[in-house]
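Re: [ENG-882] Designed sequences occasionally contain unexpected residues at chain ends

Forwarding the minimal case from QA. Structure tokens:
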């Protein structure tokens, strides 16, 4: 078992960003610990995003929760490939312990076992018309060498490549088509954070709510090819690209990974629907904002870590 849980960011004016993500984007307060603020969705994870006060903007980590056997596989494979890694104990809501691994381009991924969950938030969906994401559906990274990053995800993390397009390599850690992807950007950074909504109606209500607050989509609404999910992308005022999404395709173990020529569109179209424009320039700037930074020292891992 493995699932994407959360992403941890550092940035200036974290308290203001925390407030915006509640008042405008629709997340709920997940608490505060020191100079770190937490944001949760309606689902059972204690938080989806943490925002830590810092003079610089960077991704601290992206966190997955997993079973002991999956954790042990990652630890052994990371050691075999000579990647920077260390054991860790989480002080974030939910706790848990495991390992943190640095991939080839600096992406910091944390894998936890024993992390606690919380009661879901009821009454947020159609009955109240409240806009609230449920969980994270995927976190996408920009890569200088997306193929190498995808290969490492398979060889070290036990993920599987679902599809390759001219723009991305999509990888999955469970039956969802992708929990992450590596964009063929030519540089390394956070590409975007995607939040799972209850359904298509919830995505559209989210778009309407953002319009009420003066924010237009940077791309969307639309429906992707790989993953078949509906989307609407925005550039948050504190820097990152964030997405309302829903219904990422579930794929079987024998799903055949597509190649770029399998994912082509008519001229001037970049998704299945072809009804919206894309702010390429604005998104490019935002996608370069959050780089990666290691805040821990690599150390030998005592195996098995999942015992």
């Amino acid at each position: 078992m493995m699932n994407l849980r959360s992403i941890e960011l550092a940035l200036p004016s974290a308290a203001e960003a925390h407030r915006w993500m509640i008042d405008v984007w629709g997340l709920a307060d997940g608490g505060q610990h020191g100079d770190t603020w937490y944001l949760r969705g309606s689902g059972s994870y204690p938080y989806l995003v943490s925002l830590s006060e810092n003079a610089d903007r960077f991704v601290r980590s992206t966190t997955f929760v997993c079973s002991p056997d999956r954790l042990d596989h990652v630890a052994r494979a990371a050691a075999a490939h000579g990647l920077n890694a260390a054991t860790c104990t989480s002080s974030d809501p939910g706790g848990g312990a495991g390992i943190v691994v640095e991939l080839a381009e600096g992406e910091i991924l944390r894998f936890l076992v024993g992390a606690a969950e919380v009661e879901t938030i009821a009454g947020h969906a159609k009955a109240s018309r409240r806009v609230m994401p449920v969980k994270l559906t995927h976190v996408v990274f920009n890569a200088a060498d997306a193929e190498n990053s995808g290969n490492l995800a398979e060889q070290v993390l036990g993920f599987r490549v679902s599809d390759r397009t001219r723009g991305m390599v999509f990888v999955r850690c469970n039956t969802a088509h992708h929990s992450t992807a590596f964009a063929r950007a030519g540089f390394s950074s956070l590409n975007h954070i995607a939040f799972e909504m209850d359904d298509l109606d919830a995505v559209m209500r989210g778009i309407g709510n953002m319009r009420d607050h003066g924010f237009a989509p940077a791309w969307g609404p639309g429906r992707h090819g790989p993953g078949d999910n509906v989307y609407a992308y925005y550039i948050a005022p504190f820097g990152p690209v964030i997405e309302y999404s829903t219904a990422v395709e579930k794929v079987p173990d024998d799903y055949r990974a597509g190649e770029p020529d399998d994912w082509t569109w008519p001229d001037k179209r970049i998704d299945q629907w072809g009804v919206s424009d894309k702010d390429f320039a604005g998104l490019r700037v935002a996608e370069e904002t959050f780089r990666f930074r290691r805040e821990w020292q690599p150390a030998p891992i005592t195996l098995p870590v999942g015992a």
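QA comment: On inspection the terminal residues look reasonable. The radius of gyration is 18 Å. Proposing we downgrade this to a documentation issue.
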